[in-house]
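Exercise 7. Predict the joint structure of the components listed below.
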Amino acid sequence: MPLSILLPLVVGGIAGIVILLHLLGLSRQLIIADEQTALAAWNDEFGNDAAISATTCHDGHAALISTASGGQGIVFSMGADTTARYLAGAQVARTPRGLRVDLPDFTAPHIYLTLEPVEAARWQPIIGEIA
Amino acid sequence: MTDQLAYPDVVNYAVPFFIAAILVELTWIVIKRRGGRYETRDALTSLLMGAGNVAAGIALGFVAYGFYVWLWDYSLFNLGTGWLVVALCFVLDDLRYYWYHRIAHRSRWVWAEHVNHHSSQHYNLSTALRQSWTGTFTGMWLLRAPLILLGFHPAMVIFVGGINLIYQFWIHTEAITRMPRWFEAVMNTPSHHRVHHGRNARYLDANYAGVFIIWDRMFGTFVPEYDGEKVDYGLVHNLGTFNPLRVAFHEWFAMFRDMARPGLSLRQRLAYALAPPGWSHDGSREMTEALKARHLSEYPEDRGTPGF
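Solution:
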């Protein structure tokens, strides 16, 4: 197939599908509704170091985790799903909407947290102490 | 004349079908409220990975094809271009695909390029297009050499490989539960391939088939979809990014970083590249066998069920 046909087809196809998905409301991020959901999400990723407590943020897009081995981690929304990372080596900085967590991890380099000011003030030293 | 043999570039011609099929599946899911999930950024990443795969093929395809054309001069036979020969080539190439795919899951060197196909937590037709950009670098295209030496023309080998890839598109769906029993026995199906994409301990490293599931049945890697445990899609440790560049290169990055760790022996450095994903010099990570063993220690009642 000539590139002059293939290229517009690919670009148009991708754009069309993505716009349609967004208009269908499929861009919504998963809400981590409660502590139990956060604990389950962590255990789903790190089953060999179970979560023992979780603190969810007000918009439900992230939760701080304490693990059985004494580790600290974070569970966060990845689109309609979640993933999790340990916070060892994390750097944290304030942003107008909350916090930015930088991790030494090529697969999760930055986590942007939308937090209430009071919440950000409480979370920053918890994450910052770990850095 | 065989030396000027040309077949259509079937994968590129299938692009309109891919787009239409995704729209049909999405419509089905929205109307029926079952049969799968879509998420915008996940699908965008998958589609961009697919576009990048096509671009990589255009840019780097000459490496493998140049080798095949060179090798063709040394082929033992010329089997011609009859349809029976094409059919035989298709079956043997699918066997080649099985072994490529099995190696891709059992050696980190090849897993580094294949991992991105498994990096979505969704399983829909867009996931099928989440293909590698770096396949050329693994050298796995060498696995087609025996076919060419046996007398299958390079253009034919590429053609049947394209048909194989197109076949595998439709099996990336949750909208189809099971096909008729005879079909499930012989062919790779959505049910069999859902198992392959599972991150559940039960489903790890199973069902490597491309078109014919008989290879898994023959070589002992077949695991049926178990009604008692829904497939959980994605990686053992899921990605925290939708960035296609990070999706494409993350395992290469991690592998070379591991190989460059200070204080390792040459054997350990090579093992970080060639051993199965999850291998580590100090045993601090878990491979498939350890993940399955841990699951059974927590759920001993699962012993003897599919995958264990």
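Discussion. Chain A has a mean pLDDT of 94.
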